[in-house]
Fold this sequence. Notes:
Layout: H1 2-10, H2 14-22, H3 24-80, H4 89-109, E1 116-121, E2 133-134, H5 140-143, H6 146-154, E3 159-165, E4 174-184, E5 190-198, H7 200-250, H8 265-321, H9 328-359, E6 367-370, H10 371-389, E7 393-396, E8 403-406, H11 408-425, E9 431-438, E10 441-448, H12 457-460, H13 482-492, E11 496-501, E12 507-514, H14 534-552, E13 590-591
Amino acid sequence: MFRLLARWVRRPLLPAVRLWRRNIQLRVVAGTLLMSLGVVLLLGLVVIGQVRNGLLDAKERAAQSQAAGGFSAAQDRAATTPSAPGQQDGGRTGASVNWRSTLVEQLASGGQSAFNVVALSLDSGDTASRGARASGEVDPTTSIPADLRISVAQGTSTFQKSTRIHYTSSKPSEAGLVIGKRLNDADGTPYELYYLFPLTQEEDSLTLVKGTLATAGLFVVVLLGAISWFMVRQVVTPVRMAAGIAERLSAGRLQERMKVTGEDDIARLGEAFNKMAQSLQLKIQQLEELSRMQRRFVSDVSHELRTPLTTVRMAADVIHEARVDFDPVTGRAAELLGDQLDRFESLLSDLLEISRFDAGAAALEAEPIDLRQVVRRVIGGAEPLAERKGTRIVVLGDEQPVVAEADARRVERVLRNLVVNAVEHGEGRDVVVKLAAAGGAVAIAVRDYGVGLKPGEATRVFNRFWRADPARARTTGGTGLGLSIAVEDARLHGGWLQAWGEPGGGSQFRLTLPRTADEPLRGSPIPLEPEDSRRNREQAAAGRVQESARRVAVPAQPAGDRPSLPVPPRLPAPSRATVDPTALPGSGARVVPRAATETDGCGTSTATAGGTGNAEREDGTRGR
C-alpha cells in the first residue's frame, strides 16, 4: 500500500525530476536563488533587529527621562501643598482625591498625547475615596500588569515593563511601555504613579523598514537569478552545442564543427574540439579507405583464385580416381591432396562470405520455413561424423511445427556449424538439439557434454580465427570462420547467436530468430544456461534436501489410505550416454536412428555437407 501511494505521488513529479537532472543551467540558477534568498533573509533579520533595538532604546531613554521628571514634579507638588489638619477625615479624603486628579491632569497635559498618566491607590479595595485616576481614557486595570504593581507597591525605586495599553473607549489597544513608582500625596498617603508611553510610531517605523527590506530583498534575489541565468547561459550554450555536434559526429556526420568566437576559455574549448573532430575525421577516412582496400583485396584474391583452383581441382580429381594404380605412398598423397583442396575451397567460400558481410552486400531471402526440416537436413548431413565419433544426436521439441520467416540457406549453415562443432567437441557423448517457439520468437539450442568453455570464452568464441586450445588436435578441417559467419547470419535475421559453457560440463549454443522478419526480439523461448548445468543441478539438489527435511516432519500414512500412483515406463538407457536423457530440458525426445558402423582401417572419413560445416581448425578448436 505504501509503495502504491509513493508511486502515485511520484508519478506527477517525474517530468520535473527528469528536467532537474538533465538541465545544469536550471540547477545552477536554482542554487543561486536559494543561496541569495538565504543571504537576504539573514541580512534582513540582522538589519530589522538592529533597527528595532535602536528605536526601542531611544524610546526607552526618552520615556525614562520623561517619567523621572514627572515623578520629581509630583514629589515637589506634594511637599509644597499644605495639609488641612483641622478638617475631618472625609474632608481630607476629598482634598486628597482632588489633589491626585489635578496632579494627573497637570502631568498629562505636558505630554501632548505622547504619554498618559495613571494614579492608583496602594489599597486595591479603596475604589471610592482614593480610586484610580487616569488620563486619555486609559483603562488602568488592564493596562498595568499585576506583577508590576506588586513590584511598585513593595519597592521605592522606579520600575518599568512592556504592556498593551487598553482604553475604555472604542480606541484599539496598542503596544506600550509603562513606568511606575510609589509616591506620597500631600497628606502623606502613599499611592502609585504610572507613565504609559505608546509605541505606535516605533511600530510604524519598524513596519516600514520591514516592507522596504522585503521589497529590496525580493528585487535583489530576482536580479541575481536573472544575472546567474544569463551568465550560466554563456557557459552552458557552447557545452550544449559541443554535445549536439558530438552526437552528430557519432552518427557519421564528420563534417560538423563548432563556431568559435573570441579568445577566452570557451573559444579554446571550441578550437580544441574542432581539431579533435578534424583528426577523427581524417583517421576514420583513412581506416575506411584501408578497410575498403582490404575488402577489395580479399574479394579480388578470392575470385582470382577460383580459376586456378578449378583447374587444380580437375587435375586432383583425375589423380584421385587413379590412386588405386599408384603405390601406397603416392595414393595416400592423392587422398591428402583432395582433402586439402576441399578445405581450400571451403576457406575461399568463407572469405567471400565474410567480404560480403564487411561490404554490407549480404542480402536476406526470407520466407516462411519450418525449422524442423532444416534441423533434419543438418542432422542427416552430420550423421557420418557422429557415427565415427560414437555420438547420438537427440532432438527435442519437434512435435509441433516451428515456423519462422528466415533464409533457409543461412539458417542451415548456422545449424550445420553448431551441430558439427558439438559432435566434434562432445567426446562421444550425446548432442541434444532443442527447438522451441514462444511469443514472437523461435529458438534452436545445440547442447554438448564435452570439454566446455572457460569463463570469458563464450564471447570470444565468435571472433575470427580465435583458438581456444592450440594444443588439441582436430579431426575435421575447419577454416576458423564458421562461427563468425554464423553470428553475422543471425544478425542479418535480426536475431541472436549466444554461447554458454562451463569447464568439463559441455556447452550450449542458442540461435534465436524472430517469427516475422524485421520484428524486434524481446526474449528467447529457451534459456541460455541449460537446466542440467552444474549450478542448476546444485540448486535442485539443495531444494530436494529441503523438501526431504520438510517431509520428515509429516506423519506416515497407512498403506491402505495412500492412493496408488501409476508407475511411469522406464526408458532404455543409451549405450554410450554419460547423462540421463530424461533430465534434459524439454519433452518429447527423439533419437535420430543410424546404423552402427565403424571407421575403415585407413581412418578416412565420409565427406559431410560443404560450406561452413567444416567448423574445426587443425588444433581442434571450434571453427568460426
